[in-house]
Amino acid sequence: MPTLAGMLYLTGAFSLAGTSVIAGSFVSAKLGVFTISAVSLLFALLGLVPLCAASLRATVPSLPARMWLKLFFQALFGIFLFRMFLLHGLLLTSAGEAGILTGATPAVTALLAWLFLQESLDKLRILGIVSTVAGIVVIQGLFHTGTEFSLEHLTGNGLVLCAALCESLFNVLSRLASVKAAKQLGQLLDPITQSTLVSAIALLLCFVPALTEQAYTRLTVLEVGGWGALIWYGLFVTALAFIFWYEGIKRCNASVAAAFSGMMPFTALVLSVLFLGEQPGVRQWAGGLLVLLGMVLTGRSML
After folding, report:
1. What's the distance, CA 45 to chain centroid?
2. In the chain, which ranges are continuous DSSP H helix?
3. Rounded CA gap, 25 and 19, in Å?
4. For 29, which DSSP code?
5. In the 8-state DSSP scheme, what is residue 146?
6. Residue-wise pLDDT tens digits, 87-123
7. What torsion do the CA atoms of 169, 82, 235, 223 make, to the nearest 10 degrees?
8. 2 contacts 251 by C-beta, under 8 angstroms
9. What DSSP character marks residue 251?
10. % residues pLDDT > 90 (the chain)
11. CA pair distance 110, 150, nearest whole angstrom
12. What does the angle CA 261 – CA 267 – CA 271 come to, to the nearest 5 degrees?
């Protein structure tokens, strides 16, 4: 059964993750996608390493190859691919709409948890998945014949949905690793240490692609607001959010995490209105409500 502490950690993790859409929008048109990821991960490591230096020295030499493989896939899907799709998508669609579309994560996570973790998929969750899909269809404007529809917009939303899929894969992989570690070792990696290792692997994945984006030249002309966004992305969206995530997922199963992942689109939508001055239309609000309903139904039976 999920614990109150676990649910609070998950709420914090996904609320911080929702700010990634806003932070990314401040720099996505000024820096390359991999440059944003690499620099923010560097800031994350600067915050994380001092907190777990002793643990790293004790843990890293004894980690088995299978654990390194699990950490690699968590870094690949949870950071590298998630950010690549999200930041590319933000160049083609609005931050508010991108935030709403990340609400597909609960439904996809529930499906993957059913397939790979044998977690139950009852009527409420099936209805939640249907509601989520309906919301995405409405947001995409597939039944809208007005002038708002464009192929570029559809492509941007498609990239954001790919980011949501990567987030769902990360959710399930993290829970799977957590369950196996508890059975085989009797204990899990410390959340701060695990966050540090995943961030370091993701930085290595981003480093070479970042070199092709004229990273140094672009960073030298970046204004204070842009640096602030990168620092926030690193210390809060990455470091603190991942610590909260690993603390939460060891206390709750993937289906509960799926329900709380709905905090990500909610946070992103509200912040896009408050800080970016975006004004979502009727179609976006209607689709958002369907996605929100899907989030509630997906996790209703576990909460």
Report:
1. 18
2. 4-27, 33-59, 65-75, 82-90, 95-101, 105-116, 123-140, 151-184, 191-211, 215-220, 224-232, 241-249, 254-260, 263-276, 282-299
3. 10
4. T
5. S
6. 888 788 776 667 667 667 767 777 777 777 676 667 7
7. -170
8. yes
9. T
10. 24
11. 31
12. 160
- Residue 113: name the closest of 164, 162, 176, 157 by CA: 176
Q: Which two tokens stand for residue 133?
A: 């899909």
Q: Which pLDDT tens digit goes with each residue over 136-155?
A: 667 655 445 444 445 667 78
Tokens of 113: 């948890």
Structure tokens at 130: 């249907």
- Please answer whether residues 276 and 22 qualify as being in contact, where contact means their C-beta atoms are separated by less than 8 angstroms: yes
Residue 5 CB neighbours (<10 A): 12
Nearest residue to 117 (alpha-carbon basis) of 297, 252, 259: 252
pLDDT in tens, 158-202: 888 888 888 888 877 777 766 565 555 445 678 899 899 999 999
Residue with tokens 């996605």: 291
Reading the block at residue 74, the tokens are 């968590």
